[in-house]
Amino acid sequence: MKLKITTLLLLSCSYFVSAQEKKWTLRECVEYAIENNISIKQSELDLENAEIDKSDAFGSFLPSVNGSASHSWNVGLNQDITTGVLRTATTQFSSGRVSLGVDIFKGLQIQNRYRRAKLNILANQYQMDDMKDDISLAVANAYLQVLFSRENLAVQKAQYAVTEQDLKKTKELVESGVLPKGDLLEIEATAATQEQQIINAENTLRISKISLAQLLLLDDYENFDVADEDYMIPKSTIIGVTPDEIYQKALTFRGDVKLSQANIEIAEMDLKIAKGALMPSLTGFYGYDTRVSHQDRSVATGQFTETQIGTVQTTGDAVVSQSPVFGVAGPLPFVDQLWMNDGQSFGLSLNVPIFNGFAARNNVKRGQVNVKRNELLLKQTKLDLENTINQVWNDAQSAFKAYEASDKTLEARKLAYQYAKERFDVGLMNSFDFSQAQARLDNAQAELIRAKYDYIFKLKVLEYYFGIPVEEL
């Protein structure tokens, strides 16, 4: 028993540790966000509703079949079927009906509603795809922000480690009387500033992780972390592609463009449906009825009664009338009455719209306006897409140039810092000027990191509009 408990504890601990040590890749973050995002789940429900609407539209092609049944009690004054005398009694009756109706022609509204339902499914799918792309882009941005913050923190710590060594050397030189105490104070101030920068960088990293975790709808912020990967500047040929080529490619797959095109087709189908209401409609119907009585009935007994109604004048013979004798019997069997008392009705019904207060014609006009509105929305969507791609292309070009400039600046700052350090070590530069050289190096390193991830993100945005998945970083 103790062995089982120990095993369970070890398994639980190993699971907890593995959960804590899990580090998310960009692909995992994107897939998890798409799977758990509330807006996407709502869009999936909209897609399910569209599928149900399609089923409704298909059902309009099928005939409608309805059945009804009733049973009634009549209590009160009724005529006796044998004596003809009115008396208080209770009678019962049962009835049933089955009806069938089918739309033979309805101005092609049924067919057009079915086509509209299928178009609506496509529109919802395009909308959901567009939403997934936007969420993927947002996750990539947040993910790169975490990488930037983490790399910036690593640089800050590395810089502080160098400063600690300089501080140790400066203390020795001050104690030996080679350097004045002011130089030591200046180095200590630089170290304190870097400690503050490390704290700020740690806070920035934590906030960026929390932002990404919230985007993924995760609650365990403290144990959330991304994979330890060093992302370098990716090699991409997208920079050499013109904005117009990217725009033409984007038109073939962008969800927002396809959604706008689908909305035009839906509006055109709505217009056809509205026009169909101006046309005659032909409906076929069929009905089957039957009824059952539960009261006693009058039946002939086979006997007759004779009544003299006159005499023959010539012979004096009596003229006799015979009347059958009736008795009382119970109701016929239930099933027998169903077939004896049944009846059928069938036919066609033609409905011709003549005047309905301009409602049908106004619906046609509304449909025409809606078609024009959606055509304008498509033009606006394409225009916005073209403007966005041009802006993204310019941003990517500028970001790459900024990265190259930052890289050159950093190399120059490294050489300047190395030269200043050599002069400082031999006492040819005071601590203030040396601190300034180090600060300029720190700023150049931070700017290079910022420019690097800014370019990576803007490059991914440009590739995103070219159809390259965001998670392929």
TrEMBL record:
It is found in: Cell outer membrane. It comes from the Bacteria. InterPro entries: OMP_efflux, TolC-like. The keyword Transport applies. It holds the Pfam family OEP. Residues 1-19 form the signal peptide. Coiled coil: none annotated. Keywords: Cell outer membrane, Membrane, Signal, Transmembrane, Transmembrane beta strand, Transport. Gene3D superfamilies: Outer membrane efflux proteins (OEP). Belongs to the outer membrane factor (OMF) (TC 1.B.17) family. This is TolC family protein. It comes from Zhouia spongiae.
